[in-house]
């Protein structure tokens, strides 16, 4: 992954360009930790050689995996960074386009890039995640980390 810092009206923005074989979740998390990015939002387009999506089942309080074992276009990818304790948490959702024009979407858990993924990231502030007892998920607590 290559990174370039951009600025727009005083807002810190970055372009993160992934290459074939890059592991999206691992690289984004490592980047957030290295750069100490406490809160950010991002969007991306590109393509994956494979991915693992998931759907959160409210009844079981577990993610149901949705494997994607084919080349797909990243039509929409959006997400955010926040922290839980000493670790950044990358949360993102994706809509992926298949060869036949159909789509598949969900919570992105894992993806391998081919040939590129262009991520536009906007930083700002600090956000923390806290365990939500009802869902069992670590959700952003807007009152924490300000």
From TrEMBL:
Pfam families: PCC
Recorded GO MF terms: DNA binding
Entry coiled-coil feature ranges: none
Ranges where the PPC domain occurs: 7-143
Keywords attached to this entry: DNA-binding
Gene3D superfamilies in the record: Hypothetical protein, similar to alpha- acetolactate decarboxylase, domain 2 (3.30.1330.80)
Keyword Cell division belongs to the record: no
PROSITE patterns attached to this UniProt entry: PPC
PANTHER family assigned: DNA-BINDING PROTEIN, PROTEIN, PUTATIVE-RELATED
Protein known as: DNA-binding protein
Source organism of this protein record: Horticoccus luteus
């Amino acid at each position: 992954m290559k990174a370039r810092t951009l600025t727009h009206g005083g807002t810190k923005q970055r372009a993160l360009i992934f290459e074939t074989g890059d592991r999206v979740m691992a690289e984004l998390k490592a980047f957030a930790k290295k750069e100490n990015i406490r809160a950010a939002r991002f969007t991306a387009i590109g393509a994956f050689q494979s991915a693992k999506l998931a759907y959160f089942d409210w009844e079981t309080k577990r993610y149901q995996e949705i494997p994607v074992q084919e080349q797909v276009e990243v039509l929409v990818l959006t997400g955010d960074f926040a922290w839980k304790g000493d670790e950044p948490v990358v949360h993102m959702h994706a809509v992926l386009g298949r060869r036949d024009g159909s789509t598949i979407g969900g919570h992105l858990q894992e993806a391998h890039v081919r040939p590129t993924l262009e991520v536009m990231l906007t930083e700002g502030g600090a956000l923390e995640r806290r365990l939500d007892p009802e869902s069992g998920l670590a959700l952003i607590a807007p009152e924490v980390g300000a």
